[in-house]
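tool=predict chain=A
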Amino acid sequence: MKDIKETTDISNLRREYIKGRLSRKDLPDNPLILFDHWLIDACKSFIPDPTAMTLATVDQNGQPYQRTVLLKYYDKKGMVFYTHFNSRKVIHLKKNPKISLHFLWHCLDRQLMILGKIEQLSMLETLKYFYKRPRESQITTWVSKQSSFISSREVLEKSFLDMKSKFKNREIPLPSFWGGFRVKFNTMEFWQGGEHRLHDRFLYQLEDNIWRINRLAP
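tool=predict ok
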């Protein structure tokens, strides 16, 4: 078998970023306004999963972990996502509530990094969202012991069918081990790709309830 390096050369894979520019004069005082505009643009561009965001945590040994989750709500209080309370991410966040989010919208040559801390949502907030989910997703919440070892996919599928039968013709209750978290952000960094790698980067940092804005070198 040939070494993959003999057949795959990625060193020359590149393209120019020419979709837009980002100027200081066009920036709103509040980064959430720009985030809202960018997310709307992403949705209108028919990007698959425009609300997908990489969520980064750090374990007790300082080892970073990343995974993709979906943003489900946002306002001036923060960014909201939902997960299993026994998941790896939540175990990390109990030790270190600091978190990083990252959005990548390739076809618009845009990316966004968000820094902040998490807080758990109230039971009422979680209930409202849980009963908006498709019934199958509600069932899966009961089935999946997120991040735990399983012997096979067949075990998972059987558990799903068993749980589906259990809740047949019944309202599915909210599990006590599942809920939402809000990322209370204090930093946002907007990146707009630029021609010849002269990208536009602007950093918003919250200081004394005022957003400070600085341009960063590409």
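The first strand starts at residue 52 and ends at 58. Residues 31-44 form the longest helix (14 residues).
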